[in-house]
Amino acid sequence: MAPPSKVRPRTRIQREKQDVILNAALDVFSLHGFRGATIDQIAEAAGMSKPNLLYYFSSKEEIHRRLLEDMLDLWLDPLREFDAAGDPVSELRSYIRRKLEMARDFPRESRLFANEMLQGAPHAIDVLAGELKALVDDKAGVIESWMREGKITRTDPYHLIFSIWATTQHYADFDVQVRAVLGPARGGEGRFEDAARYLENLFMHGLVPKG
Amino acid sequence: MAPPSKVRPRTRIQREKQDVILNAALDVFSLHGFRGATIDQIAEAAGMSKPNLLYYFSSKEEIHRRLLEDMLDLWLDPLREFDAAGDPVSELRSYIRRKLEMARDFPRESRLFANEMLQGAPHAIDVLAGELKALVDDKAGVIESWMREGKITRTDPYHLIFSIWATTQHYADFDVQVRAVLGPARGGEGRFEDAARYLENLFMHGLVPKG
DNA sequence: TAACACTTTTTCCAACTGGTCAAAAATTCC
DNA sequence: GGAATTTTTGACCAGTTGGAAAAAGTGTTA
């Protein structure tokens, strides 16, 4: 009789339905943002009635919060793996590759995050200024030490990280534009490999010919 | 007695109030997206009642359409100026600089556009696949000819343009994140000049030391 | 099979949504 | 100044929104 309401599922059905709901909600939130999304839309996408959905999550906010938490965790993984002990150039190269793979494999999560940023991060500002900043500070330190050792060009490590985020997430967040501009011939599945090749070259060597 | 309803303002008051409304609407739409924005919010931000606002624009869609048109025009300006006859490296450099200035000076327009992209460009897809694609095709051709002449490194011109868009617009669209990560010390006004310096270096030379 | 917890549906609600309309108020123009 | 026009307001409407309540159904297990 009493709704579960708590975050932890207790039965098999609760676990399954919560997953279905979260998946549907990710579709809707990533497309319309928090305010633009409605519980009805999510419920329909999840194949259940609105009151039924509200039996598993007590509010729209709760679903969104949960989605954002899960996403942030996934999102920061590649940066966490960034290894100070590795070879600088190949570490950066594989970080870029992993971020691009995330944009390809989790475009909805990327858009959910982008929506949150566009709205001024009302639900995530604490994570940004706390956990994320700490993590970036740490990795920026690593990058700076590589620069001091002459392993990579001396430049701003923070903006370097920003530019990796921007260029990779662009392929998820601005997917429509990318497809429209590339056209049917080049906008198919191959676009991510073209992007990977291009970005590797950009970050490694830039545009001015050497020598 | 009859509302103007048409796009062209006939009196001084109509011109002024339409501007006030468009400005307020830009605030609201860029923050919440089309679906998430309400006429009431816009009216309040514009300092007038909802029916009064609807006297100047016949619907929410009309305001949004108008905003998007004006923005796309402004947005494509830097790319139009891209000059085939100029020096390749300095043309690219100044394009990057101009795009970054737009992100700094028109962040709301950038976010309006980003919102539209995240939602799959329902109102702009025609422009993307038409006017924009044609323009990019043209400029990509210019870039390609520069590459053939050996003036810049051989790479994918389309993805080059994407990466310029992505890196510059990032400072408008993800402003909250940038500020949060940089912290109070480096997240102030100077961040755009730091970004300009960094991006110039990235696009020109990349990260691998030369020689 | 009967008591039990778990799940789903039906009904409902108050607040909000985009938008209309007629009348009142302000402005402009002669 | 007064008529004509433009602008503003207040009341209103039908549809949607997030969510509550309670009853009805569905297992599960002693």
What does this structure look like?
The structure is a homodimer of 211-residue chains. Chain A is mainly α. The first copy, chain A, folds into two domains: 12-58, Orthogonal Bundle (Arc Repressor Mutant, subunit A), CATH 1.10.10; 68-205, Tetracycline Repressor, domain 2 (Orthogonal Bundle), CATH 1.10.357. In chain A, 76% of the residues lie in helices and 0% in strands. Chain A has ten helices and no strands. In chain A, α4 crosses α6 (107-118). The relative contact order of chain A is 0.10. At the A-B interface, α1, α6, α7, α8 and α9 of A face α1, α6, α7, α8 and α9 of B. Chain B binds a DNA duplex (30 and 30 nucleotides) through residues 1-4, 10-11, 13-14, 17, 38-40, 48-52, 54-56, 58-60.
